[in-house]
Design brief:
Layout: H1 2-10, E1 15-20, H2 26-38, E2 41-46, H3 66-75, E3 80-82, H4 86-89, H5 108-111, H6 115-130, E4 134-138, H7 142-154, E5 160-164, H8 184-190, H9 192-205, H10 211-223, E6 228-237, E7 252-261, E8 264-273
Parallel strand pairs: 1-2, 1-4, 2-3, 4-5
Antiparallel strand pairs: 6-7, 7-8
Helix pairs in contact: 6-7, 9-10
The structure holds pantoate (PAF).
Pantoate binds at residues 19-21, 49, 52, 119, 122-123, 141, 144.
């Protein structure tokens, strides 16, 4: 892959990369589309990265429909599909990791210790392997996107990071590879995350500047939905991901939500302007 990427660069091709863990869905395909609008050559990576999963997480159950993914990638017009084996990415004597500090600390970083270290490490490695000019990541994983932006800036990577909007199902549920774990009933219940975002937009638009109070209202809404349990709801500063309790007029904040639907953990987020 490195040799191919180097040749593409020598031929003055603009390389775009879309990194995924497979189980491709509409959301991933929207990232590919966005990459194709900016780059002449698009590389799609599929790698279920073990180092970003915690001990009690779903690494071994994570869906791996490789043939279906290959067909979807082809149909989407991807130029190269890079799908390495774990042993070639992390050989026996592997020792190096990449870690981002403040922006990776709260929310997902707190609930999933080591997760962002695993993400920052694999993203750095895949950047080095695919040598892209641009990379598209989904807004769905907003904190991951903030970590990657920090990483690229701090390590002088000279890659343009493009943010792709969240793709939602009809009921508002954000499209995710993990949605296949949900029953029809759970899918309906999980739409409460999107209702929470809409509630926040409405409350903030009505001059509700006490963000802490609004977050508590959303937690109550989630916990009142059968089968749903809130993990966290909070507003953060868009760049630093530091929690914010009181809104200032004219500023845009990011509302972060995580909840359990049965045993399935789901995350979502929305931009809220005060
Ligand atoms: O968002 C994902 O699917 C993963 O975290 C990523 C960026 C492909 C790294 O493994």
């Amino acid at each position: 892959m490195q040799t191919i990427a180097e040749k593409l660069r020598l031929n003055r091709q603009c390389i775009g990369v879309v990194m995924t863990m497979g189980a491709l869905h509409e959301g991933h395909l929207s990232l590919v589309k966005l990459a194709q609008q900016t780059a002449g050559t698009v590389i799609l990576t599929i790698f279920v990265n073990p180092s970003q999963f915690g001990l009690n997480e779903d690494l071994h159950q994570y869906p791996r429909p490789f043939e279906q993914d290959t067909a979807l990638a082809k149909a989407a017009g991807v130029d190269f599909l890079f799908a390495p084996e774990a042993e070639s990415i992390y050989p026996e004597n592997y020792q190096t990791t990449v870690e981002c500090s403040a922006v990776a600390r709260g929310f997902e970083g707190e609930r999933r210790p080591g997760h962002f270290k695993g993400v920052a490490t694999i993203v750095t490695k895949l950047f080095n392997i695919t040598k892209p000019h641009i990379a598209v990541f989904g807004e769905k994983d907003a904190q991951q996107l903030a970590v990657i932006r920090r990483l690229v800036e701090d390590l002088n990577m000279h890659i343009n990071i493009i943010e792709a909007p969240i793709v939602r199902e009809k009921n508002g549920l954000a499209v995710s590879s993990r949605n296949i774990y949900l029953s029809t009933q759970e899918r309906d219940g999980a739409a409460i995350l999107y209702k929470g975002i809409r509630h926040a937009e409405k409350r903030v638009a009505e001059q509700g500047h006490n963000l802490q109070e609004i977050a508590e209202e959303i937690e109550k809404m989630i916990n009142a939905t059968p089968g749903c349990r809130s993990d966290y709801v909070g507003f953060v500063d868009e760049a630093t991901f530091e929690p914010v309790e009181t809104a200032e007029a004219g500023i845009e904040y990011r509302l972060l939500l995580a909840m359990y639907s049965g045993t399935v953990r789901l995350i979502d987020n929305g931009k809220i302007r005060a």
